[in-house]
Amino acid sequence: MPIMTVIYALLLYGASAVFVLGVSYRVFAYARTPAPLKIPTMPAPVTRTGVVFRVAREVTLFESLFKSSKWTWIFAVMFHLGLLLEVLRHLRYFIQPVWFWVVLVQPFGIYGGMVMVAGLLGLLGRRLLIARVRYISQPSDYLMLLLLLGIGLSGLAITFLDHTDIVSFKAFVLGLLYFDWQPLPDSPLLLAHLSMVVALLIVFPFSKLLHAPGVFFSPTRNQVDDARERRHLAPWAAQLEGAGDEV
Amino acid sequence: MAKVEFKVPTVGEYLTTPDLQPGVMAKSAPFKAAPRHQQALGFPGELVEDWEQRAVAKLAELLKKYRSLRVHLDACVKCGSCADKCHYFLGTGDPKNMPVARQDLLRSIYRRHFTLAGKLFPRLVGARDLDPSVLEEWYSYFHQCSQCRRCSVFCPYGIDTAEISMAAREILDEIGVGQKYCNEILGKVHTLGNNLGLPPPALANTLEGLEEDVKEDTGVEVRFPLDVQGAEVLLIPPSADFFAEPHIDGLIGYAKVFHQAGVSWTLSSYASEAANFALFIGNYEQMRKVALRIRKAAIDLKVKRIIVGECGHAWRVAYSFWNTLAGPFDFLDPRYPVPQHIIEFTHDLIERGAIKLDKEANDQMRVTFHDSCNVARATRMGARPGGQFVLPREVIKASCNHFFDMAPETIGEKTFCCGGGGGLLTDELLELRVKGALPRMQALREVQKEHGVTHMAAICAICKSQFSKVLPYYEFPMETIVSVHQLVSNAIQLGTNS
Ligand code: HEM
Ligand code: SF4
Ligand code: SF4
Q: For residue B7, what are the contacts with CB-CB under 8 A and spacing of at least 6?
C-alpha cells in the first residue's frame, strides 16, 4: 500500500471522527442548555408549525439576511447553494450504484463549484473592501474563506485540468467506507484538495461554522409566541420557586 | 456635573451610514452605583479583588443557564449585516457600537476561556485576556446598547445583542461594578413599589389632584381609584404616568376609558410600577422579585384582570415574562389574556362601539406613531402576530383625522429605538442619547416635511421622556411627543352612553 494512501486514509478517518464527535458535542450542549425566558424576535409565529416554517425559511432562503443586505445575500446564496450542489455531486463517490437523482445533479454540480467560488470571491471582496466588515474581521475569518476557496479552486482544477482517475478515486473512497483500503490516485491537486477538506472537517466544530447547527437552536428564531397562553419554566428557574417569597 | 459639550448630528436628506470613527464614544459611561445601591440588591459594593476569576466564573454560569448566550456567542459568522443597523452606530460612527463589535467585546473573552481555538490561537480568532482595559470597554459600550433588538431582526441567526449586553451587565454587577441609574431605581421599587420612590400618601394625593383637574376640565367625576379591593381591573402603569407630561395625559386617558366603559378598576400603592429595570441588568432573580409584587397586589386586591399601561420594556416583561416569573395567574378571570395591554382594552371597546370618540377634537394635530422597540420586537398585542403594530395605529386613527406613518424601514419590526431605552435614560449619557436619536429624528423630519406632521405619539414612558429631552436638540418642540391615550383622552365623549 503506498504511504500516501495510508496517511490520507488515517487523516480522513481522524478528521471525520473529530467532525462528527465535535459537532455532536456542541449540538448536545445547545440542546441541553435551557432557554429560561421567551425571547422570540417578534412578530413570531404563534404555533409550532409556524416556527418550523420560520426556521426553514432562514435555512433555505436566508430570510433575515435578505432583509438586511441584498449583496451579502446574493453572495451568501451563491456560495451555500454552490456548496450544497457540490456536496450532492460528491455523493457519487460514496455510493454504488449511484442513485438516480445523484446522476441528475451531476451537470449542475459542476456549475455549483463555479458559483461557489464566485460567491466566495464576492464575500472575500466585501470583507476586504467595506470598512465596517474589515473592522469586525479576525484573521480566522479570512482564512476560512481562503480555505473554502482553496477547496473550490483545487476541485475545479481537478475537473478541468488534471483529469484525475476518478474511477480509482472512487475505489479509494469506497475502500475507506468498507475498511478494504484501495490505493489513492497519485495526483498533487487531489492531495491538496483532500488536505484542505481534512482541515475544514477538523476546524468545523471549533469555529464559526457552528452557525450551521446554531441556526436551529437560536431561541430568537425557534420559540413560539405563546407566553401568555403557556407557562414556560426552565428547570433552574423552577428551583427558585417555593423559596418562600411567593404569595 | 460639568456640562458635556458635543455636536448634535445634522439631519440630512437621507439617513447615511457614517464613516468609522474609532474611539469617539470611548469616554461615554454612566455613573457607577454606590456601594449601598449595590448591596441593596445583593451585589458586591465595589470591584472585588479577584474580579477576573469571578467574571469568568459568572460567564460560565450564564453559559449553562442561557442557551441564547451560548448559541449567539458561537454562531456569529461576522457577516456584518447587523453592523449598520444600530442607531448608536448610525448616530456616533463609533465602530464598537456596531452590534457585532459590541458582541465581540464579550465574545473575545468567551473564546479565550471557553473555546479550544481561543485557548490555542488567541490572535487568530480575536480572543483576549480580561484586563482592566477590557473592563472599562465593557462598562462603556455595554451601556451604549439600549437592548432594542433591532440588530437581531437582521441577523441570519437572530443573534440578539440585547442578550449579550444583559449578560455582560450581569457579570459587571457580579464583580461589583453596577450602574447607578438602574440599581438605585431597583432599590426604590423593592422598598416603595415604584421607580420614582413615590410613597403611598403622595401617590394618593396626586390621584386626588387628577380627579379635581379632570372634573374642572370636563365637568365629569372621573375616578382614579387606589387600593380598592374587589375592583375588576388592576392597572399597572409606569410611574412616570403619575407626574410628568405627556405621560400624565395618558393616565387621564386610561381613567376616562375605564369610566366610560363602566369597568371598575384600581391602582395599587404596593405595586404602582410597571417598569422592571431588572430586565436591563439581565438579572432573573431581581426581575422575578419585582414581578412578584404585582402578583401579590393582584391577589390582595382580589381583582379579576391585570392591565398594563403605556410602557415598552414593561410590556415586554409583562407579556413575555410574567407568566414565567410570577405565574400561573390562575386566580384571575380566564376569559381574558394575562396580562392585557391598555391598548388592547381600548381597542376592543372601540371595535364594539362601547366608547365614542370625536376625532375632530384632535384636528389641530397631524400625528405619526413611533413603534417602541420592546413592544415591536419583543411582544404582541391582540391575537395575530404583528398586532402590536396594528392595534395602536387603529386606536390613534379612531381618535384623530390626520395620521401619517414614517418611512417603512423605520417602523414596525424595523423601528428605531428612541435612543434612551435599556437603562440609559440618565443625564450623564445625554450625548449618547441625542446621537442615538438621529435615525428617528431623520424619519420624523421627513414626515414633517412631506405631510406637515406636528405630533408623534408613543406608548412607552422611556420613549416619551427621552423624546421630551432630545427633540429640542433637533429643533422640534418638546410637545411634539404625545401619549396615545392622550389622543384618546382628547377625543373620548364622556357621559354619552351610560
Ligand atoms: C444549515 C446550514 C447553513 C446555513 C443556514 C448557513 C447560513 C449562512 C449565512 C446566512 C451566512 C451569512 C452570509 C455570509 O456571510 O455568507 C453564512 C456564512 C458562512 N457560511 Fe454558512 N450556512 C450553513 C452551512 C454552512 C456550511 C456547511 C459551511 C461550510 C462548510 C458554511 C460556511 C460559511 C462561511 C465560511 C460563512 C462566512 C462567509 C463570510 O466570511 O462572509 N455554512 N452561512
Ligand atoms: S440591541 Fe439595539 S442598541 Fe443594542 S446593539 Fe442591537 S441595535 Fe444596537
Ligand atoms: S448579523 Fe449576526 S452573524 Fe452577522 S455579524 Fe451580525 S451578529 Fe454576526
A: none
